[in-house]
Write a structure and sequence with these properties.
Low-confidence stretches of chain B: 1-24, 441-448
Shape of chain A: elongated
Strand order of the largest sheet of chain A: 1-2
Oligomer: heterodimer
Distance between the termini of chain B: 44 Å
Number of strands of chain B: 24
Number of helices of chain B: 3
CATH class of the domain at 56-190 in chain B: Mainly Beta
CATH architecture of the domain at 56-190 in chain B: Sandwich
Structural class of chain A: mainly alpha
Radius of gyration of chain A: 34 Å
Number of strands of chain A: 4
């Protein structure tokens, strides 16, 4: 006996009969089983070779469609160099949101590592579609004066037999990896989007605080002058000095925020070293001029979301498994199961298991019942996922609209009123009805209103990012042309501002 | 002066019909004459009844009456009004017959007077005839002497004007609100004998004060001390007409104070005598010579003088804040504080900012935009530049060529050559050496 675990031991003559495989010894058996020959032909005509793009095309296509930016997988040094050059070119201009996402897709090494999952999965797929190499074994036994020599040609029969199944499973697995990589791209883009909004908003806050620190500094110096001239008491003077000191602390805190959010953004774009000297636009993009509508958000979520697509794919797989089970219930000796072992807090394990069974006692009725139950389960899972996805999309849409309302309220109501108050203060100052300290105090209040507006605008864009994510990563569709006065994609306003 | 007195208002123009009063319910009542103009109306010569020399109400008018069976009948309508405090500012006030203060009521000692009072305010009111001797039930304290006059109702008061003198009328119902809103008027009872203390010109006005926040129109009625509009007959300079007199004429000015503080009223160029108080006329031997008389809260004073000195003489309350229009009472003193460098910084966040106050509060005639419906703190321009006064300030204009009974503003005084203060043109050595330090002063530590 050979130590081959599977019982695929054949006589040399039998083994040599496997025709499609070139025998190193040139033994061409004429009595090869037709079944095997047919099966081998079938498998060989399948996808037993590597694709040109490593299966990246659907990912790149999805990135282009959803994010409006190309994703490129640097599979060789030339591509990597081209990407580095493109990255360096992009970094010479202020980074608007689109550019930041583009940089992420080109440059983020974690994402590139994820792209490599495709290569790994494709290797498995190709491997599954190739017949195993035949095995030759030689045995020489000596004993009792006899010398026995046994030569064995072998091939992993079970693998050959299960090759169509394994290929199908690997193909499914490969598609799943493509979906996962696409999802990783979307998630990474969302991370970058968030980080960009936070970084620009933080930088904007710093600008405002720097400006009003000037006001408090002026008030503080003026209070010093007032005290020197004998017009202010030590208490009144120190109160103004204190306001300045307090503003300086706020400014320091804001600067720290700006630094860390910028670091976070650099990290999401995969930048380091000299690349960190990128500049950001001075302001967040303007809000869409008109209140968006997005009536098709739920449909878009159902169509695009990764979880819904996965649930649908699972249902399709179950459906085809059920069909297989029905057809083969009496003769099938195979039971293929997709394994997905997941445990909370640990990465899930994927794979499959194939076993052979001889139908002596159970003629398949239990398997059919089980498959049907699994089918119904998949249907319910899909429905459940879809309900949750719709709810998520609706919630995110409502949050985004509310954020728009708030930011718009700041833009059209609070800020103009705040400006009006400042104008009125100046009129009062003109009439000696108010003092310069009133003006400077008002400037501080105006600062708070502007900071509130920055928060509200950042709140809108963050909600927008979450909304996009809930829709599967793409831009929300269904904004009626008349409902948006913004001439172009609002993100493009970010650059020059 | 931006505002010129307009005396040529005919009575038929000034006294408009009673179109606003219900004709059915008030058919038997005298017309409720009304007036919208804030200029000084010319005196109302009595068309009937006992003769007297009528008064001139500064930026106001006298209420016409009708004689009915020997009784003088007046009709007052208490109502919301819009009063121009000065050109550029109007206030929502409460008044009588279209104006705040209401029209002056002039009667003669011994007259039987019947006063119809219609309430067109949103709340109940009453009228107290301040200083009169009258039956207790006519004294007008709501709740004490009578029921308050509900909105839409008309009450009638009737009494004899027993003693001559200077009086006022004002509500005695929710008076904090109603007085703060300007509900008040002047009353003069002329002596039966026209030859008693005769004068050529008899001016009357009430002192009142309002708290109207810059940019608003309605007084803050709960204010007690921090008023920002100090007014005579609800007018602030430069909205107060000048008092004019022909040189040598005897002039009387009657002043009533319905504010919550006293006002030292000061006349330039003449000394006057306080000839009348709330209690009546002061015997000549008891009259005080003054150039300033303090008119306390709720008091009336009559002062008299011979307008002997030609010129434009200042006449004002001597509390300096009372000759200012709205100003910030919490504005710190900027005097002596160099703001030039700081102003550059401030201008970066407040672009229209301009430093003020380093050398004083004077704007040197510069005008800057103000909150709407707000008067400049100091305004008015005279023949020699900015007068920098507001509030309780006007002028007494004495001219030798002013026609008798003319109240026309004669314009600015043309001072004779050499009678106006002017820059010193000589050398400084000719100046008296007042700064020279006495030799002995060194020991006392006085520095030059």
């Amino acid at each position: 006996m050979t130590n081959t675990l599977f019982p695929a031991r054949m006589s040399p003559r039998q083994t040599a009969a496997a025709p499609p495989f070139a025998s190193p010894h040139g033994q061409a058996g004429r009595r090869a089983p037709l079944a095997i020959a047919a099966l081998a032909a079938l498998v060989l005509s399948g996808c037993a070779t590597f694709s040109d793009d490593g299966g990246f095309a659907p990912v790149a296509e999805a990135a282009q469609k959803r994010l409006g930016q190309p994703a490129v997988w640097a599979r060789d040094d030339a591509t990597a160099q081209a990407l580095a050059k493109e990255r360096d070119d992009l970094l010479t201009r202020p980074l608007d949101l689109d550019t930041a996402i583009r940089l992420t897709l080109l440059n983020h090494r974690g994402l590139q590592a994820t792209y490599a999952e495709l290569g790994i999965a494709e290797a498995s797929l190709v491997q599954a579609g190739r017949l195993p190499n035949p095995r030759f074994s030689f045995q020489r036994v000596q004993g009792g004066g006899d010398t026995g020599i046994e030569r064995t040609w072998g091939i992993d029969f079970v693998r050959v037999l299960t090759m169509p199944l394994a290929s199908r499973i690997e193909a499914r697995r490969f598609a799943q990896v493509q979906a996962q990589v696409t999802q990783a791209v979307v998630e990474q883009a969302t991370q970058t989007r968030r980080a960009w909004i936070e970084a620009v908003a933080a930088q904007q806050r710093v600008q405002i605080l720097e400006q009003t620190t000037l006001a408090t500094q002026a008030a503080s110096e003026l209070a010093d002058g007032m005290a020197r001239a004998g017009n202010f008491s030590a208490m009144r003077r120190t109160q103004e000095n204190l306001v300045y000191a307090d503003t300086a602390a706020r400014l320091a805190r804001a600067r720290e925020q700006a630094t860390s959010t910028r670091e976070q953004l650099a990290r999401q774009m995969g930048l380091w070293g000299q690349q960190l000297s990128f500049t950001l636009p001075a302001r967040l993009p303007d809000l869409p001029r008109k209140r968006p509508a997005w009536p098709g958000a739920e449909a878009q979520a159902i169509r695009e979301r990764a979880d819904v697509r996965a649930a649908r794919a699972a249902l399709d797989a179950t459906t085809s498994d059920l069909g297989l089970t029905r057809v083969t219930r009496f003769v099938n000796v195979l039971d293929a199961a997709y394994r997905n072992n997941s445990e909370t807090g640990r990465p899930s394990e994927h794979g499959y298991e194939i076993s052979l069974e001889i139908p002596l006692f159970d003629w398949g009725s239990t398997r059919v019942a089980g498959a049907e139950a699994r089918y119904r389960q998949s249907v319910d899972r899909l429905a459940d996922t879809a309900v949750a996805a719709r709810a998520d999309a609706r919630t995110r849409r409502a949050q985004t609209l509310a954020a728009w309302d708030i930011a718009e309220h700041y833009r059209t109501t609070i800020l103009p009123m705040r400006q009006r108050v400042s104008d009125e203060w100046l009129l009062r100052y003109n009439g000696m009805l108010a003092s310069v300290f009133d003006l400077l105090g008002d400037a501080r209040e105006q600062r708070d209103a502007v900071l509130g507006y920055i928060d509200a605008t950042a709140g809108y864009w963050l909600a927008d990012a979450a909304f996009r994510e809930s829709l599967g990563g793409g831009e929300p569709e269904g904004v009626e042309a008349s409902a948006t006065a913004a001439p172009t994609n609002p993100h493009q306003h970010g650059g020059g501002a | 002066m931006t505002s010129r007195r307009r005396f040529l208002r005919d009575a038929s123009l000034a006294v408009m019909g009673a179109a606003a009063v219900e004709r059915t319910s008030l058919a038997a009542l005298p017309d409720a004459a009304t007036r919208n103009d804030a200029s000084t109306a010319r005196p109302l010569a009595p068309p009937n009844g006992r003769p007297y020399r009528p008064v001139v109400t500064l930026n106001g008018w006298t209420l016409p009456w009708r004689m009915r069976n020997g009784v003088k009948e007046f009709h007052l309508v208490a109502e919301p009004v819009v009063r121009e405090i000065a050109p550029g500012m109007k206030a929502n006030l409460w008044g009588y017959n279209g104006q705040s203060p209401g029209p002056t009521i002039e009667v003669v000692e011994g007259d039987r007077v019947r006063l119809y009072v219609t309430n067109r305010l949103p709340e109940a009111t009453s009228v107290h005839w301040h200083g009169q001797r009258l039956p207790n039930g006519m004294d007008g304290v709501a709740g004490l002497n009578q029921r308050a006059i509900a909105p839409g109702r008309t009450y009638v008061y009737e009494f004899e004007a027993k003693r001559p003198g200077t009086f006022m009328y004002h509500p005695h119902a929710d008076e904090m609100m109603q007085m703060a809103m300007g509900l008040m008027g002047f009353w003069v009872t002329h002596p039966k004998d026209p030859s008693f203390m005769p004068v050529e010109r008899d001016y009357v006005f009430l002192i009142n004060a309002y708290a109207i926040d810059p940019g608003s129109r309605t007084p803050r009625v709960n204010e007690m001390t921090d008023f920002n509009l100090w007014t005579w007959n609800s007018r602030a300079f430069p909205g107060i007409d000048p008092l004019v007199a022909r040189q040598g004429e005897r002039v009387r000015i009657r002043i009533g104070n319905l504010t919550m503080t006293n006002h030292p009223i000061h006349l330039h160029g003449h000394e006057f005598k306080v000839t009348g108080t709330d209690g009546g006329w002061i015997p000549p031997a008891a009259q005080w010579p003054e150039v300033t008389t303090d008119v306390a809260v709720g008091q009336m004073r009559a002062i008299e003088f011979d307008a002997t000195e030609p010129g434009d003489w200042a006449f004002h309350c001597h509390k300096s804040h009372h000759t200012m229009n709205p100003m910030g009472h919490d504005v710190p003193t900027m005097l002596g504080v160099n703001q030039r460098e700081i102003a550059t910084k401030i201008a970066r966040i407040i672009p229209d900012y301009m430093a003020m106050g380093e050398t004083g509060a004077s704007m040197n005639g510069m005008e800057m935009p103000l909150p709407e419906n707000t008067l400049p703190m100091m305004t008015g321009t005279g023949p020699h530049g900015p007068i920098e006064m507001g509030g309780m300030f006007t002028t007494l204009k004495v001219r030798h060529d002013l026609p008798r009974d003319s109240y026309r503003d004669p314009g600015w005084y043309r001072a004779p050559r050499g009678t106006v203060a002017s820059p010193w043109q000589g050398s400084t050595s000719a100046l008296p050496s007042t700064h020279r330090q006495p030799a002995s002063a060194g020991k006392t530590g006085v520095k030059s």
